[in-house]
Amino acid sequence: MNPTRETFGNIPLSSQLAFYALAAVATGIFCWGVRRRWKLWQLGQPISFREMITGNLLAVWERARPGARRVAVDAVAQQRVRGHGFGTVAHLSLYVGFMALLAGTTLLEIDNIVSHISESLKFHHGLYYVVYEYTLDVLGLLFLLGTLFFCWRRARKPAALGHRATDWYVLLAFLAIGVTGYLVEALRIVWQQPTGLAAHCSPVGLWLAGYFAGLGEPGARSAHFALWWIHAFLVFGFIASIPFTRLFHFVAGPMNIFLAKPSLGALPPVTMEEVEKTGRVGVSDIRHFTVQELLSLDACMECGRCEEACPAFATDKPLSPKRVVQDLKGLMEETAAGLAAGQTEFRALHEDTIKAETLWACTACSACVNVCPVRIDQLRLIIGLRRHLVAEGGLSGTAATALRRMQSNANPWGLPPAERAHWTEGLTTKSTS
Ligand code: HEM
Ligand code: SF4
Ligand code: SF4
Description:
Layout: H1 13-41, H2 49-53, H3 57-76, H4 85-117, H5 126-155, H6 166-192, H7 197-200, H8 203-212, H9 216-241, H10 249-259, H11 272-278, H12 291-299, H13 305-309, H14 311-314, H15 321-340, H16 356-360, H17 367-371, H18 378-391, H19 397-409
Helix pairs in contact: 1-9, 1-12, 3-10, 4-5, 5-6, 6-8, 6-9, 10-12, 15-18
The chain binds protoporphyrin IX containing FE and iron/sulfur cluster (2 copies).
């Protein structure tokens, strides 16, 4: 017998049509949410998208290649998520499971579409079906395990992690999606009674089906139909909620990774052309950040890695790079809402949002930039703000002395210029960007 199963088996046509209508609504809400965030980022200084796409295809690819490579390595292969103990294991587990389920659902839909063109094009049967079902059944467990770990961690409320009301909604929705997915499979096995490989290629579903065997075919069909709808509602709710929860990191994260300009240890210079053009030095208003810098604020999932790596935070200075990113994000949202309401006065960026003592506590060591999984450049944000303070004359103490010495001796310690790099002797330096 050719192992397979009917797509939308036990689901009447009216429910199938309602399913597609709801899928369209969920996707619409998702796109609307992404567009709202996109409009927020447009508060910032434009970055030249046109420059990126001008010229022939080869030229466009050459320009896009470094960003595309970063997305492939950092986001798709999860390179920068690694190195964080159980957090990494849990994320890899959840991520692999999620991607497998996403790919599986897409393949199933492609099979469904081509089968409407010609039955002979259908590929969801035979050996392919057996491998498909087995892979998804096993990888679905990874998805559940990763989610369970994140639940356990969140319940312990670690200080480094951000906590929002929607966090539990996301994790519990993931658990419910995973569990109802397996229950739907188990009930399908009960009413369909597959045999041989067709049954054994779904080991988890087959095991669960044992608990529902007493329902008989009519009972299993009714329960299957009800649970199928619950599962579908949960998935649509998840899709629609992505832009409004922490899950938005998997949209904004890869976007920021693509657009980021990694330059560990090197800061962009202030040019006279720029000062003449803008009439300012540094950042004194949230709208002075670039579109990419504002987008990067949305990529932050408050994992706390930058805070853990920050020497200023570790020594109880009034600075947390995670907090800086979150405070700027809050101001971006508030300013956009104010503008939409016709306001002309906004909460000040300096002092009301980020205090000068916070900015001066930064040692510019780049540790936060180095560990951020989505390549947010916290240091560049801080330096932009600090440059404004310097331009306004708001510099005192050792920082002012160091600058004066730089001006007179080209050495912040006031020693001869040739001795400026002596402190690096015997050190090995490493760049990971
Ligand atoms: C696109 C690339 C992605 C990157 C770079 C990324 C990065 C991260 C990082 C670093 C964390 C914190 C983990 C830790 O504390 O060690 C996290 C948390 C999380 N990510 Fe992702 N992620 C990505 C994609 C995804 C995808 C596709 C999903 C699944 C739909 C996902 C779901 C989650 C969840 C549920 C959490 C835990 C949130 C919590 O603690 O409540 N991520 N992500
Ligand atoms: S800025 Fe980066 S490292 Fe810091 S909390 Fe946000 S995502 Fe994590
Ligand atoms: S660059 Fe500044 S904010 Fe980042 S880790 Fe170093 S001291 Fe902390």
